[in-house]
Design a protein that fits this description.
Layout (H helix, E strand, L loop, with lengths): L3 H33 L6 H8 L3 H7 L3 H17 L2 H9 L2 H13 L6 H11 L3 H25 L6 H24 L9 H40 L1
Length: 231
């Protein structure tokens, strides 16, 4: 009979093998979806490309949409937990947060835009893929609100930050689509006015924050003066 530590070690080894197998499937599907398209890729092709038996693939993933979900989750985690943003949020580095937002809008570090284009097209006719896109949108919005919160004080309502996050998402999705459709025609100079618009909105919130702080300080001074007069 195995000891608890031996059983734990066996379980760990099995999990590592399962993770490695799933990764093979995800990477194979990523390449096939980009080359042949979601509809034109079957489980048999994914099996051949990955070296994982079809039956085993179905034990790990219920369907192709589940593979897409795992693929997107993997990419999204890598992006959202990027070291630059995490460090900026930890240290309160405003310049680094603004730089991260600028990079987010520019969408220059997309590994394979073909995957994005294929999944976007599929989302229009596949409810399960559309749900994955909705999840992406929600998580990106949450991360943008957290990043913006670093730049302003708690006195600014979350609703204002959500509105600005939606503006950033709208611009970013548009830039991404343009990169997909015309990858060689994206003029870096176009980003200057786009980023200026976003920066102006961030600056407006910061000025509003400063105005609230000054008003609170003035009210506090007035109250103190009134107390002195009545004492």
């Amino acid at each position: 009979m195995m000891t608890d530590s031996e059983a734990a070690r066996v379980t760990c080894q099995r999990n590592k093998k399962a993770d490695a197998r799933r990764e093979k499937v995800i990477q194979a599907a990523r390449q096939l979806f980009a080359d042949a398209g979601f509809h034109n890729t079957g489980m048999a092709q994914i099996s051949k490309e990955s070296g994982v038996l079809v039956g085993q693939i179905y034990r790990d993933f219920a369907n192709k949409e589940a593979i897409v979900a795992a693929m997107v989750e993997q990419d999204l985690d890598a992006f959202l937990y990027d070291g630059v943003l995490c460090n900026a949020c930890t240290t309160g580095d405003h310049a680094a947060v603004r730089a991260w937002i600028a990079d987010f809008v520019a969408c220059e570090e997309v590994d394979d835009a073909r995957i994005f284009a294929e999944i976007t097209a599929e989302a229009a006719r596949n409810e399960r893929i559309a749900a994955i896109f909705h999840m992406i949108d929600q998580r990106l919005r949450q991360q943008l609100v957290l990043a913006l919160r670093i730049l302003v004080s708690p006195s600014i309502p979350d609703a204002r930050l959500v509105t600005l996050a939606n503006l950033i998402l709208t611009v970013s999705w548009g830039v991404m689509q343009r990169r997909v459709l015309w990858p060689n025609q994206v003029d870096r100079a176009v980003f200057t006015p786009l980023l200026a618009c976003i920066e102006s909105q961030i600056d407006a919130l910061c000025r509003e924050d400063a105005a609230i702080t000054r008003t609170d300080a003035a009210d506090g001074t007035a109250c103190a003066g009134a107390e002195e007069l009545t004492s």
